[in-house]
Amino acid sequence: KAKLSSKGEAVCFEPHLEDAYLARLLQEQEFLEALDRNEISVAYQPIADLMTGQVMCVEALARWYHPKRGAISPAIFVETAERGGLIDRLGEAILRRACKDAAQWPDTVQINVNLSPKQLISGRFPALLARVLEETGLPPSRLGIEITENVFIDFADDSIKQLRTISSYGVKIILDDFGTGYSSLSYLMMIEVDGLKIDASFLRQLPDRKVEAIIRTVARLTADLNIYLVAEGIEQPEHLAWLRENGIQFGQGFLLGRPRADPPLDFIDLAANTPA
Ligand code: C2E
Ligand code: MG
Ligand code: MG
Ligand code: MG
């Protein structure tokens, strides 16, 4: 792309674009090496019953500790992996690790794993999932797959078919970051969903009359559909108190527990986190 400067001569932006391109390639290469060297690990964050503090589930979150640059956010490297065609390998590594770990945990605790829509391109994900369950011995009912609505947008028909196959194994399907995209409600009609996670951006806006109405309405919707609701991003004791007062049953957030290698698997002390 070239643009005319104020003096009228063409200014070339190519070198700059090339730098960005090279930086991306470099990062993809680094990520591939990280996968090969097993530098990708999994952290687990508890999802708890907000009334009793019982841990009902943990979410598996990918972690990359770069030897020189330290922790790199999955928000960045998941995209790198998707671009570089490495998302299947990342997804498989996380899924296998998470199922293996969860198979050792009390059977009251479920494990949720995030799925990138790009993992559905090859059509091989359902078979991989069946194999991993078989290998690790984890009962399908203890596994949940967290999807965002991009799954429905990108490669709609075949993705939905694959999700239905997964669902037929007895694995749970959870809609992640609910309420942030477009027309999320219609997706509830397309597949059997077991749970919704209402996005952290709602909680962050409390106290606010409109946001309160939205969260209550989503809670009512999930109750009518007989599926569960998780409030994401609980950081403030006041937010926890509001959720409890309004009967929101499950929650996740730094206040209850940060993602870590050895998550709590029984109870979280909510009294310690309630405003005085
Ligand atoms: P997500 O699936 O919505 O996961 C929740 C994110 O919110 C996590 O960020 C978690 O650490 C963060 N979080 C939890 N509680 C709080 C809180 O109270 N306050 C704040 N500020 N943040 C909180 P993380 O681990 O950085 O992951 C970011 C996103 O990267 C995830 O969002 C998910 O979309 C993606 N991701 C992570 N691991 C994987 C993976 O294994 N596969 C795929 N496809 N995506 C992944
Ligand atoms: Mg998630
Ligand atoms: Mg989420
Ligand atoms: Mg989120």
From TrEMBL:
Domain of life: Bacteria
Residue span, EAL domain: 24-273
Signal sequence residues: none
Protein name per the record: EAL domain-containing protein
Upper classification of the organism: Bacteria, Pseudomonadati, Pseudomonadota, Alphaproteobacteria, Hyphomicrobiales
